[in-house]
Amino acid sequence: MEKMPKWADVILTPLISLFLAMAISALVILAIGESPWVALTTMVDGALGSSYGWGFTLYYTTNFIFTGLAVMVAYHAALFNIGGEGQAAMGGLGVALVLLYLPLPHWLIALPVAMIGAAAFGAAWALIPAWLQAKRGSHIVITTIMFNFIAAAALNYVLVNILRPVGSMDPASARFPESTHLPSISDMAAAIGMEWGKNTPVNVTFFVAIAACLLVWLLIWRTRLGYQIRAFGKSEPGALYAGISPARITIIAMLISGGLAGMMAINNVMGESERLVLNAVEGAGFIGIAVALMGRNHPLGVFLAALLFGFLYQGGGELALWTSIPRELIIVIQALVILFTGALDNMVRMPLERLFLALRKRGDA
Amino acid sequence: MAAASQNSEGRPDAAAPAAIELRGISKAFGPVQANKNINLRVEKGTIHGIIGENGAGKSTLMSILYGFYKPDSGEIRVGGQPLTITDSQTAIRAGIGMVFQHFKLVQNFTVLENIILGAEDGPLLRPSLAKARGVLRQLAEEYQLNVDPDMTIEELSVGHQQRVEILKALYRQADILILDEPTGVLTPAEADHLFRILEGLRAEGKTIILITHKLREIMEITDNVSVMRRGEMVASVRTAETTPEELAELMVGRKVLLNVEKTPAQPGAAILEVRNLRLVDPDGVERLRGISLDIRAGEILGIAGVSGNGQTQLLELLGGYPEKGSKVSGSVRMNGQELDLTGRYSDAATRRARGIGHVPEDRQVEGLIMDFTAWENVAFGYHHAPEYNKGWLMDNAAIRADAEGKIERFDVRPPNANLAARNFSGGNQQKIVVAREIERNPDLLLIGQPTRGVDIGAIEFIHKRIVELRDAGKAVLLVSVELDEILSLSDRVAVMFDGRIMGERLPSQTTTGELGLLMAGITDTENAADNTGLPPDHKHVATLPGEQP
Asked: Is-cis flag, bond preceding B149, omega within 30?
């Protein structure tokens, strides 16, 4: 017996949560003496009002799709991977090493090779916590969060001491060779004679992200591995009964999760900055948690939630640029959205379920 | 006392108001009508049985009485006074106590702490504890409810834990005690003790409502009995004026066969040969102490025993998933070939590939993924089977089609393969598991507690399928704590006690009394049986094989 129709569960609940978050944000903006309406229109204009805004929004969206999918895959195996940040950072290192040291004549060749490098480094970074969880019972939440710090420190060391070009003051790698630069979507649009999103960072990786959504959907709901991941995630004794090895599934699910988080580096490291810089991930690993939660651990939901957070990121930047609303407030707004759509999900869901039960009862009578 | 004893005869006493009276209670969950216009009168000082199949609405009705659910309509009267029960506190104040099937005790609290939990007199615990200790001593004397007040719950046996639940209710001055399937977790001796306690409580004028599946218990202890079927109260009768057959018929709404029809076994070659199997669990407790047994093609070997004597470990070990960290030794041959017990190929998937099907004891935790749909569960454990896969992807259409066939052949209700497993009743969940395992046509079927929590109609059906599998020349290892089930299904009975096989008997040449002694660990049964002269009151047990929960 479903408590409420699927559309209400998947669409109505997050929309109401979002609306509540916006309402409280409006109150906060009012409280500091600014107009919420102006703030909203600035954000919408800045993020969605022009192809330029869209170019940035979709760039951020791409990052969040990868980290959201990473959290989602692990979640289906009942593993809470909060190490997306570190795995994405390590993915960046993988991309940088591949692009700096392998001769890659064209981006069409560089892209798959860099994807492998990114995924391999991200997966390797998830492997150690996964192995510790599977074989030693060390809790994955603790180990993955600690591995975020280790990744940051290790990357710092590598950038300063190994990858930094001689004579450079900047803790960043050399620029990647020209031949490996990914085409931005504005380039692609220009090639077919359209002008769209000039000087925006969104690039061909966006399509890779969409493909990743489809593949993850296939993986989780259509393959034996996905079946085993979901079964293990729901019941470990059940998995044992069915001959599914918990250790094996834990490790495989975390490898896929880490690989997806690492793939984010295709977008930000290879596609945007075209060299490896310090703190390239900029919190996208953590946003992935909120994206997966809000997306109800379904690739389509992850895509939509990533779009929302892309909008908030870009709109928030615009807000800081054009109004006197301080930058910190944007973080407050983002936090409220995370709070309402993620953590306080049940606050909206429960009354809604009750409402639907009452409506159904009346319908029957 | 005079009034109490008169009422214990079960006669409605027109002068005294009923302890509990329900008038026209209805309750729906969405489109499901769980209770439909229920009328019930429970006389003071009686034991009133409520029986019905799974999903008949018994638990819903009791939850309404205890304030967990609000009825959509109808009236509740307690002691003649109309009462709106909004929460369990109201019910407790009205003198209603509830003993749940799954105990609500804090495992690492002592008995005393559990008893005062929620009934503390003030912010300081010491006075409450002292008072409870006194009350407990008094109750223990009055009703044979002996429990050491300073033991923690985890140190107590299940039977003693149940006594704590009863004490909790009595401490809260309950006059009306509701027990939900109280004997489901008890050994026969513990159940007998429970019944003596209940008789003692009745003698003191307490009213007891006993919810159960077991006709034998109803016949043995109740004064009146009400039968529920599909949300309705179909009959309320005096126990002395009815028969088990009549009650069974009222429960399912048709005549049921209480005996399993089967021809004598024609055993063939040995399918499974177990030799000196030992298992030490991670805590260092030796759970299996040298088990040796054979199962032949075309026979059902029943393993009788009080639960917790190693049956679970035996099934899990044969099924390929002993508890992590267990030490295993001994040998098992399947179809003449040695099984890997400890190595790389000791997992459940390899066992299935070797032709071992397994209906696990706990279908909700192991046998099914409760959030998966029925069709997804049909592939559970067999998700690698070629017919369920198409290249890289699972062939969901094929699995669904197979599931729909199984649902039809096994009469799973509702016949909806897209429903999540948790939305089926216990009996129908079990049918899904049994269908999945039996239709694989395994050479050996392990089946644990096949009819626990399953209604009579489904029991009969599942028993028939097991016998059919045997007749097809397959071997069946049946583990059940229900002696009736063991006796009516098995071709041979082995009794397990403390990790050992105490003896093997033929069902036709043994008695429940003899098996009972073996279950209690007394090996020299022939002498013991001759000397003691078994009590005749166990005789009727074997005639009612179909009544287990």
From this structure: no
